[in-house]
Structure formats: C-alpha cells, structure tokens
Amino acid sequence: MGASPARLVIALSVAAALAIFVVYTALAGAGVAQLTPSTVSAAKGSVILVGQVVGPIHVSGDTRRFAVKDIRSANTDRVYVDYRGSVPDLFKRGAEISVGGRMRHGSFAATPGSLVTKCPDHYAPAKSSSQNA
Amino acid sequence: MAALGRAALLLAFGLFAYALIAGSYAAWRKRRRLALSAQNALIAAFPATLVASAILLVALGRHDFTFAYVAEHTSRNLPLGYTLSAFWGGQEGSLLLWLVILTGYAALAVWLNRRQRELIAWTVPVFGLIAVFFSFMLCFVSSPFHQQVAPADGKGMVPSLQNPYMLAHPPMLYLGYVGLSVPFAFAMGALLSGRTDERWIVATRRWTLAAWTFLGVGQLLGAHWAYTEIGWGGYYAWDPVENAALMPWLAATAFLHSVMIQEKRGMLKVWNMVLVALAFNLSVFGTFLTRSGVINSVHSFSQSPIGAWILGFLIFTVAFSVVLIRWRLPLLRTKTRLESLVSREATFVYNNLLLVALALTILWGVLWPVLSQAVGQTRSLSKPYYDFFLHTFGLPLILLMGIGPLVAWRKASVRSLGKTFLIPFGVAVVTGGVLLGLGFDSSWAGLLAYTFSAFVVASIVLEFVRGRAAAGGIRRLVSRNRRRYGGYIVHAAVVLLAIGIAGSSAYQTIRENTQLRPGQSMEIAGYTATYRTIADVKGADYTGFRSVLTVTGHGEGFTVDPGTNYYGPVVGSSTEASIYHDPRTLGDFFATASCVTTASGACRADGAIDLTLLVKPLINLIWVGGFVFVFGALVAMWPDAVEQRRLAARYAAGAAPAGI
Predict the structure, then answer these.
(1) How large is the ipTM?
(2) A47, A109, B566, B643: most buried, per Cβ within 10 A?
(3) Which chain A positions have a beta carbon within 8 Å of B165's beta carbon?
(4) How many domains in chain A?
(5) The domain containing residue B592 runs over which residues?
(6) Helix H or strand E encompassing B83
(7) How far is B162 from chain A (nearest CA, A)?
C-alpha cells in the first residue's frame, strides 16, 4: 500500500475544504438566534422571531403594529411587532411569520423587508380553521 | 369509488410486500421461478397504483366532495386544470404521486433489464422495500380515499397555488426525486447480489440522467415562478425546502461524473455507492423536510404526523445503505490507482469533492436550527453563510468545467497542457482584464464567475472546433459520442446559469419603497421611470389598482404597470409585479408598487404609491440556460446503437452469467 502523491494531495484538499468550513463557521457561522414570542423578551442583539399573527393589525402610513404568539401552543405570551415597509401577500391575521429585528422597549422592532410568511398548502377560511388541524 | 381506490392501494401494498419478501428469499436461495414471480408482482403493482390515481383524478374532476381530500383542496368554481393539480396539492395526493411514479419507474427499469437476472433478482426487493413504505403510508396512515358526508362546496385552493407553474413544477420535482430511487435500487441490488461491476451503472445511467434533468427543470420552474409571481424580485432564497431539492441534485451531478471514471477506469467503486446512496437519501430527506415542518421554512406545508414516519424511513434507508456498503467493501476494492494529479480522473475527483462539499455545507445550514436547538438555543443560518460556500466551492467548479474536458485520461504531460490551454487561458485573461476596466470589480465573485465562464466557453468551443475538423461536421461529431457532447452542451447551460445568476445578484441595482405621486419620476441604473397615473382594475374575484409608469434609458422606451390585487379579507392581497425584458441587456426592469393608504386602509386620493424598482442584468440567461440544459441532457440521453453494441460485446466477453 504505497501512498501515491496524488492520494496525498486529494486528502489534503479534503482537509482544506473541512478547514475552510470549520474556520468560517467558527468565525461567522453561528447564525442568528431564532426565538418564539414566549422566549424573545430577554433577547439581546438581532434575532429572528417566529410566531403566529394574532389580533388586529394596526396600520399607520407604511408601518404596521401587530401581536404574535407561539405557533400551535397554548402559551399566552404575546409580543408586539413594529414593522415598516411592504409585507408579503399572505400576511394577515393567523399567518405564521418569521421576521428579523431586535427587542426595543418591550416590543420587537423589525428589520424592514425581513418579514416572510409561510405558504400553507391548505386554504382554510378563518372560521373553520380549527377543523382541519 | 373510494372503496375501489382503497382496494387498489391494498392490492399494491400486498404485491410490494410479496416482491420484498418472496423476492429476497428467491434471490438469497437462488430460486429463479420465485424471483420471476416477485418481479412480476412488482410490475403488476403499477396498474394497481394507476387505478388508485385514476380514481382520485376522477373524483377531483367530478367535484366528488364525499372524498375528504377533494373537499379539502378544491372547490366548485376552481378551473379544471387547477382542480386536477390538487392531486399533488395536498399531502395524501403527493404521497400517491410518489408511489405511482416509483412503481412506474420500477416496472419499466426492471422490465428493460430483465435479462440481467442476478442483478435484477436483488433490485426487485429493494424497489419493493421503498414501495412497501409508501403504500403502507397510503393504506394505513394518510389515505387519499378517506370519505365523509359531502359538504355543499369544498374549501378551495390557496390562490398562490392557482398558477400554471403549479401544474408542472411539483410533478417535475417528484419525477426527479423519485427517479433517484432507480439508481439506488440497482446499486443496492448490485451490493446484495455481489455483482459490483459497472453493470448497475450502465443499466441506470439514463435513469439517473433523466431524474437529474427533471430535478433541475423542476427547480428552474420553481425559481421562475417565484421570480414572476411572488414579487420580491428574487428567484432563490436558500430556503430549506428549496435547498431540499438542490442537495440531491448536487449529489446526482457528482454521481453522473464519477460513474464515468468507474466505467472507463474501474475506479471509485466505493465512492459511487456512497454518492448514489447520498443522492437517494437526500431525496427522502427532502420529502421529509417538506412534509414534516420540522424546520422553519417559507414552504412548510402541513405539519402532520407523517413527518415522524418519513424520518423513521429515512433513518432506516441511511442505515441500510451504510451497512450494505460496509459489508461489501472487500468486493468494491479496486486495483487501479489515480496515476497523476494532471489527468481527467483527478479533475473529476476534484469536481466530486467540491460538489459534495457544497451539498454537505448546505445540509449543515438546513440542519443547523435543529442541531443548535439540541445544544441550547435555536439559531438559523442565512444568505451570507450559503453565499460564502457557493462562492468558495462553486467558483472552482466553474473553472474545472473548463479544465476537465481538455485534460487527457491517466496522465497528461504538462507541456501538452500548456499548448491546449493557451487559447482558453488567453480568452479568460482578456475577458477578466476588460471587465476590470469596465468596473466589474464591485463584486469579486461576479468578476471571477464571468472570467471563469469565458474560460469554459472558450474550452468548449475549442473542443467542438477540433472535433468537427476530425469528424467532418457537427452532427457527425455529436452522434459519434452523444454523451460527451451532450455533456458539453449541459456545461454551456451551466455557464449561462452562472452568468445569469452572477449578473442578477452581484450586479443588480435596487431602489426600495420610494414614495411617488403622479408626475414624479425616479432614476435607477441609467433608466428614468416616470409615474404617470393610477388606474383601478377589477377581475372576477378581486379588485385592485395598476400604476402606470413610462421608462426610458439604454436606448429603450417602455411602460410598466405594477400594482396590487385584493381578493377580500380571507385571502388577502397579491402583489402584481411588472417585468420588462430588455432585449439589449438581456436583463429585466422589475417593478412592484403598493399604494400609500389612508388611516382607513384605502388608497390615498392623490394616487401616491410606494415604488420598488430592481434592475437585474442578464437574468434572462438563467431561463435561456434552462432550455439549453434540457437540450444537452436530451442529446446525452438519446438512444445510441453504437454504445449498445459496444456494451453487448463487452459483456459477452465477460463471465457468462450464472443462472439463479
């Protein structure tokens, strides 16, 4: 089993690819924390908030203020989100959303343009949504 | 009707179970007649799944709301095309589509290869195993034939799914995902039977190619749909569900390349097994991702208990592949070694390394929220992470597309290489220099992508020019080695994709949410857009507005009319982007608008709008690349009589197949 130089170079290349990955993830790859309305209140720095829109959506100018709660959870914690800018088509009461931003004075100051809604494969009118959970 | 559907699925389940159990026993004890009957059971299951599918389609077409599935996903006023597309609009139907495609593929692949008895004897039970799982789900866990008292009308379909793309995009992806089970079944069959030569590769080459093409086309359709319909100006967002389709495609791309080394030089046998298992398991993983809702995605369809079932199946198939490969390792050892780093083989190895590295880093990104949750807090990785690895591993891949075809097998001399690469290298240097002079260094990744693309194009053109001189005509050249030249055409398509992606992302210009009143104008990337007027629009089930803008610049004058449709409080509104394809720059002028509202939510009387404009250079090359991609793949797939004769002769010379 004489090791050929070709094999050595390929092994080194694999090691190099791994090294790039490890270094990158160590320096920049931890990602952004993903929190739910019940856990976001103590968050520091920018995070992603994942939740379900509840209650009325207040619109003033191009700013919207609405509350979100944990998805499919009996937890009653609510967080108010302030969002400026246009929203996706599917954004409405009951929509499951993910939005970036940071906590400021007890409510969530969202980054413009960061709001995404989930595509449902069910079209359930609001009234009967409890029937097809 | 529903009872017949259930019966057909139960029958199919029984046939698959028979193909699995009797087939395994027959292959193990070498019972030829029993193996044949298992094979026939597998083939006979196809009509059974077809019957089940036909019943669901008929129920959809007749608005038979006694089928819970039909009532759940369609309504009476839904046009017929979308009504039928509800077949794959929901979970149960999607599973049935999986199964019917799987059995169709399995029946045809097994029948076409029926003469390779030893290989097929073990391939049949592997197909049976996969199909048993999906038919079990359909019979006992998630049946599309669940009945109920018919409501007056169904619940209807989400408007975003009522779109021509949804007629083609999901089936294409399924044809791709499921298609990867063919090479997987044959590979596992080869391991089980001990026939680890390259027959399984030859038998499944076109299947892999077809699955890979479908997967690619499916993703491009999805990208085009997102671009034209969603109205955010992008086409790929590194969303887990999008990544779920990209990963198996990357693994299959690596596989398509590395099998050539095994065919030509008998090397990389273990690696090919690993790749085919990786591609298949990633496609099951993709099914799991889309169906389980474990990972937060824009597309997380329904969260349902079948996620746990698919996860169980995935764990099983991963373990199954690992154990089999480990068990047959001694048979997969090869005597041939990589002789030189300057050889075709070496470039293929590097190509594989980069493709797999890219696929695995994407996998890491997709899994990171789950992994980080396990050790503490849920965190997610986004665009910067994916972009970094796309650049790090993707750009060298482009370069390799230009190098690989020009390097000789086994061992190339450095001197001959210098001569071969003189022209492509010169073209690349000149292109890079010119682009640098034009100020393209605003994005180093874009600059490198263009420079490397020039290199690849030059080397492909060179190959065709040289080959044509030797063969006397392009057609004769291509027909002499369809696989090779089809491959080059696909490479050209990938270059078009790379140029389009780099142009539309690295060099795009965005002006977001500028408030304009009629008569005002704004400038972007050499265009001047003047907002003329706002008009109300009214359709069958919506009201809305269109803002009319005239745009001049780059020697062009055109009109765009972005706006919004409002479908009522339940459905909500839909952004109607307006896109102008500029034939001179091959780029797009992309506009979306929302009207500035009063406190009551109505549009303001002065017609003020928030306008978002994007100029995306060269983006149309992505879609052009899609057509070239399909064309190249077809050339490579086309039946080749010369190749068949060559293979037949090769096997006739080999060991006579021992009967089982």
Answers:
(1) 0.77
(2) A47
(3) none
(4) 2
(5) 509-616
(6) helix B80-85
(7) 11
